Amino acid sequence: MTVSQASDIKSMEKAGQLTAQLLFYLEGYVKPGITTNELDKLAYDYTLSKGATPAPLNYNGFPKSICTSVNDCICHGVPDETILKDGDIINVDVTCIVNGFFGDSSKTFFVGSVSESAKKITKCAYEAMNKGIEQISGTSTTGDIGFAINKFVTRNSYFVVKDIGGHGIGRKFHDDPFVPSFGKKGKGVKLKPWTCITVEPMINQTSAKMKEVKIPNSTILYYLTGDKTLSAQFEHTVLITDTGYEILTKL
Ligand code: MF3
Ligand code: CO
Ligand code: CO
């Protein structure tokens, strides 16, 4: 787990705020007709203009500055010449490095007007993330987070992705502990005050086994639902305090 010294907390807050601002900036461009490559270029230029670095670019060979996961893409979608069309949903996942500290956040956006089923799974993913975050304190565990997420998602008749989840974050992009979207109360890893984690549940409409796809020249994989149904996700970077938490990537 990444230990944040007292003086590092300010730095994590700064990284989190730039990350939130970048995501808000990109949201304004998510419209029918734009390509995911254009969103990537906007993100790259914005991040550099703020003196920061887009963490995904060249991370384990990942070729772009953001992840853009459209419809049945669960995560790590690679920006390309895909044109967004009315009715799509897209998760935009951004990570900024500011003075050596990482902020990581994602949201699922609507492209134009979307179906009721798209609205419903997106709302569930957002609420599931918040249910997980609400569990965070200096006395809780990763299992508490996962349990709360999975309980909420199951009650809404959706399915959590088990193989991918949140992570410790700080001076490293991905650190211990793994933060699952399922688990048992009191189990898993005890959360450590004054360190940071992400909470980033991925929610599917069915239990179809997901497909892994290789990204050329990269060890990163991207993931699709097994049956082309929708997947949605939200992510925040969160500071664990003695008694609770602070969401670092909220505007
Ligand atoms: N931002 C993703 C996460 O939430 C990681 C993307 S890694 C990349 O952990 F290489 F695909 F960019
Ligand atoms: Co993350
Ligand atoms: Co992310």
Please give a structural write-up:
The chain has a single domain, classed as Creatinase/methionine aminopeptidase superfamily (Creatine Amidinohydrolase, Alpha-Beta Complex), CATH 3.90.230.10. Helices cover 27% and strands 26% of the residues. The protein contains four helices and 15 strands. The strands form four sheets. Strands 8-7-9-14-15 form a five-stranded antiparallel β-sheet. Strands 1, 2, 4 and 5 form a four-stranded antiparallel β-sheet that branches. Strand 14 and strand 15 form a beta hairpin. The longest helix is centred in the N-terminal third of the chain and has 22 residues. The protein is globular. The site of 2-amino-4-trifluoromethylsulfanyl-butyric acid (MF3) has 13 residues, from strand 4.
Alpha-beta content class: alpha+beta
Mean pLDDT: 97
Oligomeric state as shown: single chain
Each distinct ligand: 2-amino-4-trifluoromethylsulfanyl-butyric acid, cobalt (II) ion
Apparent shape: globular
Strand order of the largest sheet: 8-7-9-14-15
Helix amount, in percent? 25-40%
CATH superfamily: Creatinase/methionine aminopeptidase superfamily
Radius of gyration: 17 Å
Report how far apart the termini are. 25 Å
What is the architecture at the second tier of CATH? Alpha-Beta Complex
Number of helices: 4
Tally of domains: 1
Order of helices and strands: HHEEEEEHHEEEEEEEEEE
Could you list the spans in which at least 5 consecutive residues all have pLDDT below 50?
none
Largest sheet: 5 strands, antiparallel
CATH class, anyone? Alpha Beta
Which fold name corresponds to the CATH topology? Creatine Amidinohydrolase
